[in-house]
C-alpha cells in the first residue's frame, strides 16, 4: 500500500444537470477550500457518467450534454485544474474491472439494505417498473471509484454516507481475503446543518430540477431575484411588519443561515452586526419581509456574480475545457490502472505480468512425477 500514508481526496457528481446553490453550499465551496488548504497530496473529482447511466440508460444524450455543464460549474466556482484532477468515469476502464471483482464481495441482501438506494428506488418508480441491476449495484461501482484513487477522504453530502460505509466493508473484505491492498476511506460531511441540505426556494426538502425550486449557479440576476421574490415564503403569520415573526422554517432565514457572513451586514445592512441580531428583530416584530428578501438577494448576488462571470469566460473557450478534462482523465487512467494492477496481483489473476504460471505448472508436474 504505497499510497496509504498520503492524504488523497476523491469526490464526484453525476452529470445529470447543471449544478445549483444546494451543490454550492453543500459541497462545491468546501471542495475549493480543501483544494486551497494545501493539506492534501492529491485531489480528484470524478464526473460519474457511468453511474448517471444506471438510471438514464434510455437517455445518454442528457449525460453527454451535462458533462461540459458540470465542468463549467466546477471551473467557475474556483476548482483549479492545476491543483485538482477532473476526470470522466466512463474513460477509466480500471473502474469497470474493479467493480466486477468487488461485486463478488457483497451480497444482494446487503445491497438491498442501502437506505439511499432504497429511497432512490422508490423515487424513480423502480419498485413497480423493475429495478435495473446496474442501478441496484451502483454502490459497488462507487466503491471502485473511491478505492481506485486510494482515497483516504471522501467529501460528500449526508445521503452518501451509506456508500462510504459499503466501500469500507468491501475494502475490509478484500484485504482480509487477498491481503492488505486497498486503502480504507473516510467520509467528510459538511459541519453546518443548513449547508448539509439547503431546501428549495419553495421550502421543499431539496432543490430539484423537476420541482423548479432551484437557483442554478448559472442563473442570471433577474432569475435569482424572481425565484426569491416569487417563490420564497416567509412566515405566514407575519402579516404586518410590527407582528412578531418566526425565523425557524422560514426559508429566507434558512438561506441566510447557509450563506451570509458578518461582512455582508456591514456592506448591505449595517443596522445589524450579524444574523442573530437580525433574527432577534424579526422575532420581536418590526422587520419587514421585503427588507429580509432584499438583503438575501444582495448576499446571493455577491456569491453568484463572480461565479457567473467566471463561467462566461470559460464558455468562450469550450476547447480549453475539453482539454482540461482530457488531461485530467489521462492522469486518472494511469492512477487507476496502477490500482487495478495491484488488485490483480493480490488476487493472483495477473497471468501475463510474468510467466510464473508456467513455472508453477512445471514444478507441480515434476513433483507429481508425471
Ligand atoms: N453518488 C454520488 C452522488 O450521487 C456521485 C459519486 C459517484 C461519487 N462516484 C463517487 C461521490 C465517488 C463520491 C465519491 O452524488
Keywords summarizing the entry:
binds tryptophan; 370 residues; elongated; two-stranded parallel sheet; single chain; 6% strand; 3-stranded parallel sheet; mainly alpha
Q: What is the gist of this entry?
A:
The chain has helices spanning 21-37, 49-53, 60-77, 93-102, 108-112, 115-123, 126-129, 133-136, 138-148, 161-178, 193-196, 221-231, 251-259, 262-268, 275-284, 289-315, 318-347, 356-367; strands at residues 8-13, 42-47, 84-88, 153-155, 186-188. It is mainly alpha-helical.
- The pLDDT mean sits at 94
Radius of gyration: 24 Å
Percentage of residues assigned to helices: 55-70%
What order do the helices and strands follow?
EHEHHEHHHHHHEHEHHHHHHHH
Number of strands: 5
Structural class, judged by helices and strands? mainly alpha
C-alpha geometry: elongated
Quickly count the helices: 18
Strand count, sense and barrel status of the largest sheet are: 3 strands, parallel
Unreliable segments of 5+ consecutive residues? none
Account of the protein in words:
- This protein has helices at 21-37, 49-53, 60-77, 93-102, 108-112, 115-123, 126-129, 133-136, 138-148, 161-178, 193-196, 221-231, 251-259, 262-268, 275-284, 289-315, 318-347, 356-367, and strands spanning 8-13, 42-47, 84-88, 153-155, 186-188.
- With 370 residues, the protein is mostly helical.
- Helix 3 crosses helix 16 (289-315) and helix 13 (251-259) crosses helix 16 (289-315).
- Bound molecules: tryptophan.
- Tryptophan (TRP) is lined by residues 10-14, 46, 48, 51, 142, 145-146, 154, 156, 160.
Amino acid at each position: 500500500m504505497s499510497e496509504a500514508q498520503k492524504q488523497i481526496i476523491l469526490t464526484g457528481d453525476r452529470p445529470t444537470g447543471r449544478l445549483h446553490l444546494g451543490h454550492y453550499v453543500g459541497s462545491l465551496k468546501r471542495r475549493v477550500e480543501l483544494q486551497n488548504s494545501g493539506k492534501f497530496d492529491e485531489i480528484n473529482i470524478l464526473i460519474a457518467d457511468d453511474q448517471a447511466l444506471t438510471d438514464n440508460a434510455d437517455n445518454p444524450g442528457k449525460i453527454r450534454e451535462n458533462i461540459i455543464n458540470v465542468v463549467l460549474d466546477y471551473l467557475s466556482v474556483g476548482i483549479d485544474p492545476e491543483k485538482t484532477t477532473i476526470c470522466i468515469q466512463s474513460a477509466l476502464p480500471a473502474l469497470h474491472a474493479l467493480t466486477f471483482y468487488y461485486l463478488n464481495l457483497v451480497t444482494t441482501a446487503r445491497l438491498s439494505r442501502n437506505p439511499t438506494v432504497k429511497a432512490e428506488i422508490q423515487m424513480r418508480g423502480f419498485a413497480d417498473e423493475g429495478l435495473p441491476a446496474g442501478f441496484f449495484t451502483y454502490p459497488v461501482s462507487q466503491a471502485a471509484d473511491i478505492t481506485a484513487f486510494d482515497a483516504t477522504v471522501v467529501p460528500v453530502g449526508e445521503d452518501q454516507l451509506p456508500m462510504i460505509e459499503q466501500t469500507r466493508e468491501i475494502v475490509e473484505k478484500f484485504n482480509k481475503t487477498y491481503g492488505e491492498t486497498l486503502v480504507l476511506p473516510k467520509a467528510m460531511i459538511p459541519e453546518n446543518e443548513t449547508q448539509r441540505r439547503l431546501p428549495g426556494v419553495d421550502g421543499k426538502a431539496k432543490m430539484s430540477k423537476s420541482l423548479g425550486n432551484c437557483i442554478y449557479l448559472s442563473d442570471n440576476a433577474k432569475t435569482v431575484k424572481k425565484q426569491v421574490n416569487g417563490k420564497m415564503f416567509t412566515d405566514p403569520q407575519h402579516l404586518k411588519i410590527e407582528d412578531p415573526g418566526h425565523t425557524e422554517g422560514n426559508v429566507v432565514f434558512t438561506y441566510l443561515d447557509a450563506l451570509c457572513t458578518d461582512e455582508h451586514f456591514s456592506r448591505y445592512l449595517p443596522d445589524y452586526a450579524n444574523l442573530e441580531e437580525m433574527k432577534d428583530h424579526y422575532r420581536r416584530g418590526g422587520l419587514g419581509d421585503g427588507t429580509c428578501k432584499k438583503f438575501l438577494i444582495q448576499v446571493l448576488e455577491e456569491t453568484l456574480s463572480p461565479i457567473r462571470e467566471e463561467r462566461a469566460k470559460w464558455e468562450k473557450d469550450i476547447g480549453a475545457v475539453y482539454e482540461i478534462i482530457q488531461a485530467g482523465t489521462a492522469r486518472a487512467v494511469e492512477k487507476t490502472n496502477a490500482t487495478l494492477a495491484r488488485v490483480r496481483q493480490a488476487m493472483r489473476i495477473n497471468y501475463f505480468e510474468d510467466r510464473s504460471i508456467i513455472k508453477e505448472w512445471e514444478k507441480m508436474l515434476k513433483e507429481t512425477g508425471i
